[in-house]
Amino acid sequence: MKTDDFDFYLPEKLIAQTPLEKRDSSRLLVLDKKTGKISHRHFTDIIDYMEKGDTLVLNDTKVIPARLYGVKEETGAVIEVLLLKDEGNSVWECLTRPAKRIHEGTVISFGNGKLKARCTECLDEGIRKFKLEYKGILYEILDELGEMPLPPYIHKKLKDKDRYQTVYAKNVGSAAAPTAGLHFTKDLLEKVKSKGINIAYITLHVGLGTFRPVNVEDVTKHKMHSEYYVMTDEVADLLNNTRKNGHKIISVGTTSTRTLETIMSLYGTFKGCSGWTDIFIYPGYEFKGIDYLITNFHLPKSTLVMLVSALAGKDNIMRAYSEAVKEEYRFFSFGDSMLIK
Fold first, then answer.
1. Element (H, E) at 188
2. Domain count of the chain?
3. Residue, of 176 and 213, whose pLDDT is higher
4. Closest C-alpha to 331, from 6, 41, 16
5. Residue 258 domain-assigned?
6. pLDDT digits (tens, 9 = 90+) for 88-108
7. Are the C-beta atoms of residues 334 and 154 closer than 8 Å to each other?
8. Same domain, 134 and 204
9. What is the pLDDT of residues 279-292, one digit of tens each?
10. Which of 16, 339, 311 is nearest to 153 (CA)?
11. Which of 27, 108, 110, 201: CA 20 to 30 A from 258?
């Protein structure tokens, strides 16, 4: 299976640069994975595809202002650091640019010394580990000094940083938003509940996997970086009962999906647990944890296109994406939505 098999033509003008004024006003392309039939709806119609007793699964991770610009203490060179993974004891795994200027022992200063980062280890692909030095509460310092880590294909500055958070974001720790959830409003979630549909929250802190392109020719040789997830006993019980009673599990986003599939692959059932996952889903994978998927339109040749191709079939996905391009859907993080049913 070749990475190039998951390439498609995308005009640059279709890459959404800003969020819509109303979160739930985006368009919704509905793809039937069995028949390949495509329908064009609006996101507020999503509730029509859920029934009483179904469970909607949301990732409640919260994005931190993880992008920092500082200066190398010894030379004054400007360095960009993106916090990816909290390894404990104030040590963070970070994506660094330009990485070649950062060696073990290098100290970067942010905000005139309010925060300092001392490099403790150099890894491949621009990754460095830093020991952070500061006084006070780190997340308050990041709120002051950091920027929201928008993906590199978004070139416009975000006016309201809350628009790169879901309305239900709660558990701090992500370097990117679980963007399929950006379409939901509090009102729409209330309507979901009123229809008798369960809402379950799990957590997966989005890390480097979101930023890392597939650079190998053979898909199976790509290595996913691990991301931290949590599922409570209560949510596990709810999901197991949903299945037992013959209802659907509707996953919001590839991050929720990877969490559900990780747990099912490990235990054969949903279970309250936490851990690190590097699950890589591509065609040939048999889904065990979800029935429907709500997702956005993803980058060509990305692991996310491979995941949706595994669920709906590559031919169906490529045809749906071609249709989305023709109909000028908005793509990527701030773009329109897709339901695979």
1. helix 186-194
2. 2
3. 176
4. 16
5. yes
6. 999 999 999 999 999 999 999
7. yes
8. no
9. 999 999 999 999 99
10. 16
11. 27
